[in-house]
What we know:
Elements: H1 2-22, H2 37-51, H3 55-70, H4 98-114, H5 121-135, H6 170-178, H7 184-191, E1 198-200, H8 205-209, H9 218-227, E2 238-240, H10 252-256, H11 265-272, H12 277-285, H13 287-302
Antiparallel strand pairs: 1-2
Helix pairs in contact: 2-4, 2-5, 3-4, 3-5, 4-5, 7-13, 12-13
Amino acid sequence: xxxxxxxxxxxxxxxxxxxxxxxxxxxxxxxxxxxxxxxxxxxxxxxxxxxxxxxxxxxxxxxxxxxxxxxxxxxxxxxxxxxxxxxxxxxxxxxxxxxxxxxxxxxxxxxxxxxxxxxxxxxxxxxxxxxxxxxxxxxxxxxxxxxxxxxxxxxxxxxxxxxxxxxxxxxxxxxxxxxxxxxxxxxxxxxxxxxxxxxxxxxxxxxxxxxxxxxxxxxxxxxxxxxxxxxxxxxxxxxxxxxxxxxxxxxxxxxxxxxxxxxxxxxxxxxxxxxxxxxxxxxxxxxxxxxxxxxxxxxxxxxxxxxxxxxxxxxxxxxxxx
Length: 322
């Protein structure tokens, strides 16, 4: 009980700090110190997305893994050293695709040439994700800027339930999101990120192997079993989160779920739980509403637990503390 109270107080304090820090953020933060900031990021992400079309999904997942546990501070970008195991090398982050890291590093390199020691890695990640989503059909939304980067990144600081798991029951997911100030509807909207990207077969094979009462369309389950049949020998085998329009950001993810075409256990859970099912139905029939709510939830996530002023730093390299 004492441990639970401490954890709840931690997230409460983080929320209060986030509100204070958010007030220091502005959309034109770099208008004088780095006027080409947005152009440089846009050029970088466009080139990367053209050559590697999975970049948008990779960066979006990286952004969520950075922000959701302890706030948007670019701590997940830091590499481990001989003395410290960083967040990115914790077990829950080992499957993060390298293209997400790479696009931020490329943008940072270009920005350091144009405006040395001016733009934070956390701001780069937030804007890069927004712009990448637009390139694949997603909604545009304003990003407040002025974040600082964390001076600490330790895998030991990630709590056991720091991030939602594909196998998590809906009750657990609701608890994780609401403890951070997100509503059930915002949770469902953010789940729509699964309309792009892929998941490794290890995340779903146990569930697909069960014939009955899994929520899968039988033909879809057969196809998944075949696609993932060799995953034990090749753990990199993956399948698209959205089998219908895997590279387009749209509302097809929500249309798939009622048809048994959701990929992960948590996807199916959204339709079986009465708290979340109405929002799945809403977004399945109204893409404009999904885009509006997703954009709002992403804006809210992007300022969660941010650092400003002397509470953080502007890293010269995104993968290393100054």
